[in-house]
Write a structure and sequence with these properties.
Elements (H helix, E strand, L loop, with lengths): L1 H11 L1 H4 L7 H8 L9 E5 L5 H9 L5 E6 L2 H10 L6 E5 L5 H7 L5 E6 L8 H14 E11 L5 H5 L4 E7 L6 E7 L7
Parallel strand pairs: 1-2, 1-4, 2-3, 4-5
Antiparallel strand pairs: 5-7, 6-7
Length: 191
């Protein structure tokens, strides 16, 4: 069911979906393994798709931690809304990550501890990628972390424009194999 949804959405929206299959359990584990769930007060997820990372975060976060997931695709949004209804401190938004600051203001959130991203930066328009990364850098706490995965390292130069410390892990057990990038916003003046 999830694979057929992904294929259908990829065919309809290849620039915003970016994958023909949902992420593997191994990738989901790698995406959340470095999050300090005990100390996190706010976690954001860009592009949760059908919710494999979302589920891992919801299972590990503290009840009082605010978790915001922002999904652009209306079909995926509906799946997520049904799948995770009734979750504590979980805010699901059907919009672009470009507009996240509006929602942080609405919910009186100043800064974010972690941003987990499933966005396909390799296929997003360059201006959109830059806007999302600029907002990401701005809203992360000083020791906050942006965690994303990419199928190639094609966009590393772009990520380095916003983050000066990037660790990467290769995940072979995913279709296709991918890289998890853990990006730190250590220098507020880096652009």
């Amino acid at each position: 069911m999830e694979i057929s949804n992904f294929i259908k959405q990829y065919i309809k929206n290849p620039k915003t979906v970016g994958a023909i299959a949902p992420s593997s359990e191994k990738l989901a584990y790698k995406m959340v393994e470095d999050i300090n769930f005990f100390n996190a007060s706010c976690i954001v997820e860009y592009g949760p798709g059908t919710g494999i990372f979302t589920e891992k975060i919801l299972n590990k976060k503290k009840d009082e931690t605010i978790f915001i997931a922002i999904e652009y695709n209306p079909d995926f949004y509906k799946i997520l809304k049904d799948k995770f209804k009734g979750e504590t401190n979980f805010i699901l938004i059907n919009d672009s990550a470009e507009n996240l600051k509006e929602y942080l203001t609405k919910y009186n959130i100043d800064k974010v501890d972690y941003i987990v991203s499933g966005l396909p930066f390799a296929s997003l328009p360059d201006a959109m990628s830059k806007k999302i990364l600029s907002i990401t850098k701005e809203i992360l706490k000083d020791k906050g972390e942006f965690i994303t995965f990419q199928y190639t390292l094609f966009k590393m130069k772009l990520f380095k424009m916003y983050f000066n410390k990037i660790k990467r892990k290769k995940v072979l057990l995913n279709l296709p194999p991918t890289y998890v990038l853990m990006c730190k916003n250590l220098n507020q003046n880096t652009k």
